[in-house]
Hints:
The chain has 16 helices and 13 strands. The protein is of the alpha/beta class. The chain has three domains: about 1-35, no CATH class; about 50-70 and about 335-455, Aspartate Aminotransferase, domain 1 (Alpha-Beta Complex), CATH 3.90.1150.10; about 75-330, Type I PLP-dependent aspartate aminotransferase-like (Major domain) (Aspartate Aminotransferase, domain 2, 3-Layer(aba) Sandwich). The strands form three sheets. It has a seven-stranded mixed β-sheet with strand order 2-8-7-6-5-3-4, sandwiched between helices. Strands 9-10-13-12 form a four-stranded antiparallel β-sheet, with helices on one face. Strands 1-11 form a two-stranded parallel sheet. The structure holds 4'-deoxy-4'-aminopyridoxal-5'-phosphate and glutamine (GLN). Glutamine binds near residues 49, 67 and 216.
Amino acid sequence: MLKSPSVLMVLSQLGRRSEVKLARPLHQMVKMAKQVQARRLEGTDKNPWVEFVKLANENEAVNLGQGFPDFAPPEFSREAFRQAVSGDIMLNQYTRAFGHPPLVKILAQFFGKLLEQELDPLNNVLVTVGAYGALFYAFQALVDEGDEVIIIEPYFDCYEPMTKMAGGRPVFVALQPPPAHDGQLMSSGDWKLDPAELASKFTPRTKAIVINSPNNPLGKVFSREELEVIANLCRKHDVLCFSDEVYQWLVYDEQKHISIASLPGMWERTLTIGSAGKTFSATGWKLGWVLGPDRLLKHLRTVHQNSLYHCPTQAQEAVFSSFERELRLFGQPDSYFVQLPKALQKKRDHMLNSLQTIGLKPIVPQGTYFLIADISTFKKKMPHLPGSEGEAYDSRFVKWMIKNKGLVAIPVSAFYSSEQKKCFDHYIRFCFVKNDSTLDAMDDKLQQWKKDLEA
Length: 455
Ligand code: PMP
Ligand code: GLN
C-alpha cells in the first residue's frame, strides 16, 4: 500500500531522531516531526556562554567569566554615541546596506595603513553585527557541503558550530603546551603548533583555516615565523584564511600584533575580522567589520543583503567618530589603542600575582584580556566533584568554585573539540578587563580561599 507523502516524511524524520518515541499515535508524531530542528543544527545546541553567563547571574560571585569590561567605554566614544542619537535625525534611518559611508571610509583608511594595502571603502570593507556577524557571513558565504575547515585549538568556540552549520567539516590541530615545570611561569607564547602536524591537516578538501591572534582563551600572539608557516601552507594548497583579530590592540610586553593579510600573497585569500566591542570596550554596541578582497567579500555581501541587510546607523556613526580620533592620534600616548593595553597589562599582572597565592598556575598571556590557569593541583586533591555524566573536570571545577569560592571563570575545555576536551580539562579561563574594585573583590575571595586551604 502506498503511504501518503506526509507519512513518508514523518517516517524519514523519525529515522534520524532517536529521541522521538515510536509508541506515540501517528497524529502526535506528525506534530512532533514538524518541530524537529533543521539538520544543520545537529550537535550545535550546547553553548558555554549561555550556560556560564546564567550561572554567573544566578550566583553572587565575582564575575571573571564572560569577556566584557565592567568599566565605561572611553568618553569620546560615549559622547559620539550621544551625538549620534541626539543630532542629525537621518541617523535614525537606514544607511548604506554594506556599511555607513563615513565608517567604511575611515576603516579603509585606518586598516589600509596597517595592512600597507590600498583599501576601497566600498568593496574591501563590510560592516557587520559584531565580529560574530562577520564570522557567520564568512562561513555561510564560502564554506560548502563537505568542505574541510582547519581550526587551531584552543579556539573561540563558535568556529566549530559555524563550520557545521555551513555543511563543512571541522579539522582540528592543537597548540601544544611545553612540558610542565616548576618555578618560572609559562608564557602563552610557549604553546606551539607542530608545523608537520599542521601540514598534514591540509587536503584537497580544505577550504579555509581559521586563525585567531591574539588567541582567545590562551592569549597567544602568533609570531611572524608562525604566521609564515600558516601562510605558506595556505598559498601552497590554495586555501582561504579567516583571521579573527578582535584583540589586535591588546598585546603586552612589547609584543607586536601582525595581520596575516599583510604577508606576501595573503591579502588575496584572507578575511580580516575586527570588533568595535573589543576595540572601544563597548561589547553591547555589537558592531564589527570584515576586510578582504572584493572577489571574496562580494559573497559575504550576498549573505548580508539577504539576511540582516543593515547594521544600526547610530552605532556606526559613533564608531566612525571614534576611529577618526584614533587615526588622528595614531601611535601617540593619548590614543586609546595605546592607553588601553597599558592599563590592561597592570590588571593582567595583578591577576597573575593573585591567582598564584592559592596554588593556581597561570599562563602569562601575551595578548587579549584573558588568561588561563592550570588547576592540576586541585584536580589531584579533589578528583571527584559533582557534575553531569561525562562533564569535563574543569567545568565541574568552575561550578564548584562559583558556589563555594564566589568566583566565576570559564572552563577551557569549552574551547576544545570533543576529542581533545579530556586532554585539556585542567585549565580555567579568567577575564581581567575589570575595574580595580572588581580585582580587589577577587583578592578578598582568594584570601578567604587561602585561609580555607591553611585551616
Ligand atoms: N572572536 C573572538 C575571538 C571573540 O573573543 C569574540 C568575543 N565576543 C568575538 C569574535 C565576537 O565579537 P563581537 O562581540 O564583536 O561579536
Ligand atoms: N568573546 C567573549 C568571551 O570570550 C564573549 C563571548 C560570548 O559572550 N559569546 O568571553
